[in-house]
Structure formats: C-alpha cells, structure tokens
Specification:
Elements (H helix, E strand, L loop, with lengths): L4 H8 L20 E4 L2 E3 L2 H11 L6 E5 L5 H10 L4 E6 L2 H11 L7 E5 L13 E6 L8 H4 L2 E11 L2 E8 L2 E9 L9
Parallel strand pairs: 3-4, 3-6, 4-5, 6-7
Antiparallel strand pairs: 1-2, 7-8, 8-9
Length: about 190
C-alpha cells in the first residue's frame, strides 16, 4: 500500500501528544476528542480528508484558522517542510499556550500558533497564503479569508455542514463540495 504525504505526516505527528493527558488513550479513535473550551481535536479521518483537499505542497505558506490543540498546525508544518511557513490562529488563549508547548519539541520552527486578533478573521497582516484551512463551521464562504489567498490559493472550510474547497486561478474561483461534516461554529475573535 502506497503512503501519501498526508499519511506520512500523520505517522510523524502522533495525535496523542495534542490531546489532554486524560484522553490520550483515545488518540487512535476516529472520533473528535474534547480539548476544553467547547473545542475538539477533530477526528483523524476528517483531518486527513481536509488535508488532501487542501493539497499542501512543500515550501508553501499556510494559514490554519481555529488551530485548537495545534495538531493540524503541526501536520501542516510537516507537509510544507522547512521551506514553508504555517501560522495557526486560535481565539482561546489557553489553547494557544498549550499548542505552543506541544509544538516546541517537534522542532518545526517554521510553524507557530498565535492569538487571534479581536474582530479579525485569519491573519491579513501576514497574507497572502497559498493555502488556508478552517477547522470550524462557517455560515457562508468567508470573504475575508478568500482575500488572504494568493492568486492560485486554495481554501478548505466547512460551510453549513458541507466541506467546501475554493480554488483561485486565472479564471476566477472554482468551488467544489465534498460531503457533510460536523464542526464547532466559526466564531469571530
């Protein structure tokens, strides 16, 4: 069986270290695991599906909105490699602190998690990004994030329960839908 880049990133970035200690035994379960503050560490099959839709390449700049436990930020850092950059944005201060602590020993300094700015979605001051991953459910395609993409960028976001992939190119925007998922709501910081 061939492994793809996402499978390899999963192998190098075990989920258990990103879960609360009391729940680490649940790391192999294909279910969301609560991490506090009404947030979850998404189920692995969902994360893998989103990462495959995002189609991250080495050297790219990626924004991880709703980075939560920091697991997706770490996976994205593995996918972009040392020539890329990953910025995780999280609105809950204690989750920012714990994800920074878990990311530090992975020695992926091209990835960082920071506190979301009040009233700002994403990281417009650090844009543009080649890829943007949103791990919370929006009510509509978030234009503020689309504006933070490069001309050839890709955004993956759950919108009203449906996984949406928006790809920008010279011809405009192409939106495709990829099944139904449940996520915590996307809340403006």
């Amino acid at each position: 069986m061939d492994q793809d880049a996402v499978d390899e990133a999963f192998a190098r970035t075990p989920r258990a270290g990103f879960l609360p200690e009391r729940d680490r035994r649940r790391a192999a379960e294909d279910r969301p695991v609560p991490i506090g503050h009404d947030q979850t560490n998404s189920q692995p099959s969902t994360v893998a599906a989103m990462l495959r839709l995002l189609d991250v390449r080495p050297g790219q700049g990626v924004l991880d909105v709703g980075s939560g436990s920091g697991w997706t930020t770490a996976l994205l850092a593995d996918l972009v490699g040392s020539g890329g950059r990953v910025i995780g944005v999280e609105r809950v201060p204690s989750l920012v602190d714990t994800s920074r602590a878990v990311l530090a020993p992975l020695d992926r300094p091209w990835a960082r998690v920071r506190q979301a700015e009040p009233g700002v979605l994403g990281a417009p001051g650090e844009a543009p990004f080649d890829r943007i991953l949103v791990s919370a459910e929006a009510q509509a395609l978030p234009e503020e994030l689309i504006e933070q993409l490069t001309d050839e960028g890709v955004l993956v976001v759950p919108v009203r329960g449906e996984m949406v992939r928006l790809a920008r190119d010279a011809h405009g925007r192409r939106v495709t839908r990829h099944g139904f998922y449940r996520f915590v709501p996307l809340i403006a910081p």
